[in-house]
Amino acid sequence: MIRLLLYGLFGWCAEIVWTAFYELVAALAAGRRPDVRLIGHTYLWMLPIYGGGCLLFEVVHGVVAPYPWFVRGVIYMIGCFIVEYATGWIIKMVSGAIPWDYSERRWQVHGLIRLDYAPVWFCFGLLLERVETVVRAVEPVLRNL
Asked: Looking at residue 113, what DSSP letter applies?
């Protein structure tokens, strides 16, 4: 449960930073004045999604650890797409809407995933290898509090 929460919090923070900088770059690319407050956002749904997805990641990482970094990155990217698609589909079935609806984007699939995010998920998966090391080191400390 502690790892689920730590991963969920990490995911929330990563998404908030990502969305803030994404909006900044998008504004600059479009010739608009950027919002320098760097407001990022996420959804409450994402805590269990990131937490549970990262616990699945631990299992996958244990299996693919001996593979070259590029192969691991591709596997993580595919895994992220699967988790994002599946959880978005479930949320849509339950609530009638997708929090991160990508329907208006060019490289979207059913509004649930964006194929142009492939490099992001590739890098995110490789970053999670390092995050897992930190989470596993911090977990025993938190258990003893």
From this structure: E
Nearest to 6 by CA among 69, 50, 41: 50
As a whole number of angstroms, the distance between CA 59 and CA 70 comes to: 18
Rounded to the nearest 5 percent, the helix, strand and coil shares of the chain are 70, 5, 25
Question: By three-state DSSP, how is residue 70 classified?
Answer: helix
Q: In the numeric block, which tokens belong to residue 108?
A: 């979207």
First to last CA, the chain: 15
Nearest-CA neighbor of 42 among 53, 30, 50? Answer: 50
| pLDDT per residue as tens digits for the range 33-73 | 999 999 999 999 899 999 999 999 999 999 999 999 999 99
